[in-house]
Each structure stands twice: as C-alpha cells, then as structure tokens.
Specification:
39% helix, alpha/beta, 175 residues, 8 strands
C-alpha cells in the first residue's frame, strides 16, 4: 500500500460504503438465552460517520447479514442507503448506485473479509481494518491501524477528511 496513492484516491471520495460485521463491529455475534442477537457498535466510529456526513460525504452500508440492530444503528446515524442480507456485495453496490451520480473513483469501501474483496478491488479507494483477512489486506489500498469495531471506521473517516483538507473544519464545532 502506497500512502501517497491512497491520499490521492481519498481526495476524490464522495461516498464511503461500509461492511458491518468485522468493520462497524468486531465481528462477534452474541446470542442471549432468549435468542436475542446482540452486537456492539463503537461510538467513535459513529462520530466519524457524522463528521463525514457533515463534510458532505455520504455514508452507506452493505452487509451480508440482516439485523434489526443494524436498522436501528443506521437510523441513529442518518444512513439511509442500507442493503442487508447480500453476500454478493458487488451486485449490491451496483444496485445502490443505480439512482446516483457517483463514479467508482468517488467511492471508498471498507470491508474485512473475502465477501468484500470484489468491491474493494473495484472502487476508487478500497479500505480494510487492521485485523482483516490477509488476502483482503493485500488488495486494499489503505488499512487502518485499529481493528474492526474498535475505531477503524473513525480512523478511515479522518484519513478521508484530512486528504480532502476538511478535517479542521469538521472538528471546529468541538474546539
């Protein structure tokens, strides 16, 4: 991975698409005795998404599993483009883009495992987490230092904002 090339690619990004399990979560799935499914989302990742949105960069989700928990979290974060239950993520991305003006060069995608590989290779900025599958890491143009579900999305958001010289303005309300 060449950081300079990744920064050039990040300058064009208008849409960040995220996988869920292993990216927005640590990939663990918890079941209660009553059969309820539980997932933990990192609050820092949520703020990173909000910073991107505030800077005019849209965020979307494509995930292989379906979950009411994800619907709730995406609603909380104002993410309206969400495709659940799709293992063929490249087809799902094409569907997501059907009514948009985004070119592939303007899209970043962050995934962690083999179902994400085709999209990571297709978009302008393929991103992955520190604990990604090695094959995915080999093909990604940028890799976080943080693990999935542990602030990797926040790190990716800040990388994109800094590459576009929007980071200082994004954090201005907090100073």
């Amino acid at each position: 991975m060449n950081l300079a090339n990744s920064q050039l690619a990040a300058q064009k990004i208008r849409l960040l698409v995220l996988d869920v399990d292993g990216v927005l979560t640590d990939g663990s799935i918890y079941y209660s005795n009553s059969g309820d499914e539980l997932k933990a989302f990192n609050i820092q990742d949520g703020l990173g998404i909000k910073l991107l949105q505030g800077a005019g960069i849209e965020v979307a989700i494509i995930t292989g599993r379906s979950s009411n928990l994800l619907s709730r979290r995406s609603d909380e974060l104002g993410i309206s483009r969400v495709i659940q239950g799709r293992e063929d993520k490249l087809s799902a991305l094409n569907e997501l883009l059907a009514d948009s003006t985004y070119s592939f060069d303007e899209i970043a995608y962050m995934g962690d495992d083999l179902p994400d590989l085709a999209v990571i290779r297709r978009v302008g900025l393929g991103m992955t987490v520190a604990n990604a599958n090695p094959t995915v890491a080999e093909h990604a143009r940028w890799q976080s230092r943080r693990d999935g579900g542990r602030g990797a999305v926040r790190e990716a958001a800040e990388f994109i904002l800094k590459a576009q010289d929007k980071f200082a303005q994004a954090i201005e309300p907090f100073l």
